[in-house]
Amino acid sequence: MIKRIVAVAALVPAMLGTTSAVASAQSAPKATAAVVTLTYDDSQAGQWASAITQGAQNWNAALHNVQLKPASSRGSADYVYVATAGWPQTTLGPVFPGDSGEVQLGQEALDEGYDATRIAAHETGHIFGLLDDYTGPCSELMSGHGPGTSCTNALPSAAEAAQVDRTYAGDAAAPRVKHHQIVVDVWSNAAH
């Protein structure tokens, strides 16, 4: 009987060591692909500059596989922000390095009372390939004008960020479908 207890006692540390190794292997972070960096040019955005900066910071804080940064020179950006007199509209992405997208930030949306940072962050969502969901709650950035002018949330939801991270996971140089579609957001109170 004593021999059995000693044998079991000798096996326990070995089993625990194996179990610990399995647990730490399972909890170790997975190796991830390189982060995709998208550059933007806001030199034609005028009064929208601070809203663009804050919107980019909001996305960067929520994302793991793609990050936004200002381009080092005009003309070298993957996409540009432009201030316009009309309604916001954007090239539907996903935009990748070397592409050329455009975000038109429309004055009419500001005149209607919508928040500039929410507009800039929402339109950036289209650059990532996200579509509108006007029936969504204010907590969803891509609900756009749906929740009305009182909604000033400019943060992507966890689900929106996860969708963008899935889009930019893997090889950024892999062949992909290019969209040449423009998404026009009519942020009008008249639409309600």
From TrEMBL:
<dbReference type="GO" id="GO:0008270">
    <property type="term" value="F:zinc ion binding"/>
</dbReference>
<feature type="signal peptide">
    <location>
        <begin position="1"/>
        <end position="25"/>
    </location>
</feature>
<protein>
    <recommendedName>
        <fullName>Extracellular small neutral protease</fullName>
        <ecNumber>3.4.24.77</ecNumber>
    </recommendedName>
</protein>
<feature type="binding site">
    <location>
        <position position="132"/>
    </location>
    <ligand>
        <name>Zn(2+)</name>
    </ligand>
</feature>
<feature type="active site">
    <location>
        <position position="123"/>
    </location>
</feature>
<keyword id="KW-0732">Signal</keyword>
<dbReference type="GO" id="GO:0005576">
    <property type="term" value="C:extracellular region"/>
</dbReference>
<dbReference type="GO" id="GO:0004222">
    <property type="term" value="F:metalloendopeptidase activity"/>
</dbReference>
<dbReference type="InterPro" id="IPR024079">
    <property type="entry name" value="MetalloPept_cat_dom_sf"/>
</dbReference>
<dbReference type="GO" id="GO:0006508">
    <property type="term" value="P:proteolysis"/>
</dbReference>
<dbReference type="Pfam" id="PF02031">
    <property type="entry name" value="Peptidase_M7"/>
</dbReference>
<feature type="binding site">
    <location>
        <position position="117"/>
    </location>
    <ligand>
        <name>Ca(2+)</name>
    </ligand>
</feature>
<keyword id="KW-0862">Zinc</keyword>
<keyword id="KW-0378">Hydrolase</keyword>
<keyword id="KW-0106">Calcium</keyword>
<keyword id="KW-0482">Metalloprotease</keyword>
<comment type="similarity">
    <text>Belongs to the peptidase M7 family.</text>
</comment>
<keyword id="KW-0645">Protease</keyword>
<feature type="disulfide bond">
    <location>
        <begin position="138"/>
        <end position="151"/>
    </location>
</feature>
<keyword id="KW-0479">Metal-binding</keyword>
<feature type="binding site">
    <location>
        <position position="126"/>
    </location>
    <ligand>
        <name>Zn(2+)</name>
    </ligand>
</feature>
<feature type="binding site">
    <location>
        <position position="122"/>
    </location>
    <ligand>
        <name>Zn(2+)</name>
    </ligand>
</feature>
<dbReference type="InterPro" id="IPR000013">
    <property type="entry name" value="Peptidase_M7"/>
</dbReference>
<feature type="binding site">
    <location>
        <position position="115"/>
    </location>
    <ligand>
        <name>Ca(2+)</name>
    </ligand>
</feature>
